[in-house]
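My current task is to audit a protein record that another person submitted. My question to you is simply how this chain folds and whether the tokens agree. This is what I was given:
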Amino acid sequence: MTLKEKFEDILRVTNKLWNKVDAESCEKIADEFAIGFAAWCIWNNDEDLANYSYKELLEHYKKEEGL
């Protein structure tokens, strides 16, 4: 299942006014977030990122970026 399809499923259940634009907007936000996180990991390569789980890295990224 694609990311867009997952958002569509959630929006269908939670919002009777769901439309394709909502799912596309959610997909765009998720894509931008993923790109930002990947870039952050690359730019912080001077730290030993291997010592952290993906969840720990994600939490650190969100805290640092104020997300």
Observations:
- The mean pLDDT is 81.
- The longest helix spans residues 20-43.
- The chain has one domain: 3-65.
